Amino acid sequence: EPEVTQTPSHQVTQMGQEVILRCVPISNHLYFYWYRQILGQKVEFLVSFYNNEISEKSEIFDDQFSVERPDGSNFTLKIRSTKLEDSAMYFCASRLDGGTEAFFGQGTRLTVV
Amino acid sequence: GIQVEQSPPDLILQEGANSTLRCNFSDSVNNLQWFHQNPWGQLINLFYIPSGTKQNGRLSATTVATERYSLLYISSSQTTDSGVYFCAVPSNTGTASKLTFGTGTRLQVTL
To answer: What pLDDT is recorded for position B94?
Structure first.
């Protein structure tokens, strides 16, 4: 069964460093998303991406965040200068164009020290 | 935006017991998903259930879209059912249909 895969599963980084979280969405999906979950809280939307551009973003998604689809298979989230409060689980999701069900990856746990 | 509330917030069960988790949402939706977040933090898709009832083993879900709620039933619970259960519904704003997650129900199944 096709699935969304995320790498790495856990990343530890020093405050101020740049990190790139990677996702491989399901191959025929055209909508891509990043969500974030701070420990003990609910899952929050960060950004959606369609047709090689951001279609919607939340107020959390400020200038330190960026997304990219560098090739036909990967979808990345970059955090330019990490802060302690960026520590969270980050989930990637994808869905079909015209579909309504979103498929989530297993998440990347980011720890900023 | 749409509001999604789940109840109860916490639930402790003995192994073998049954439970019902509830998800209320504030606006009409064309889709609802249930997820299980395991103790390692991974989100597992359980159900995609815009309306009606679906069953998968010991789990089943019912969505009554006209009354803006969904129920998740867990029968004969096992310790591996422990974790947090989230429902999520699409936002009606924008074309990308981002999901809004509920507040979650934390389930602990004990021996």
So the answer is: 57
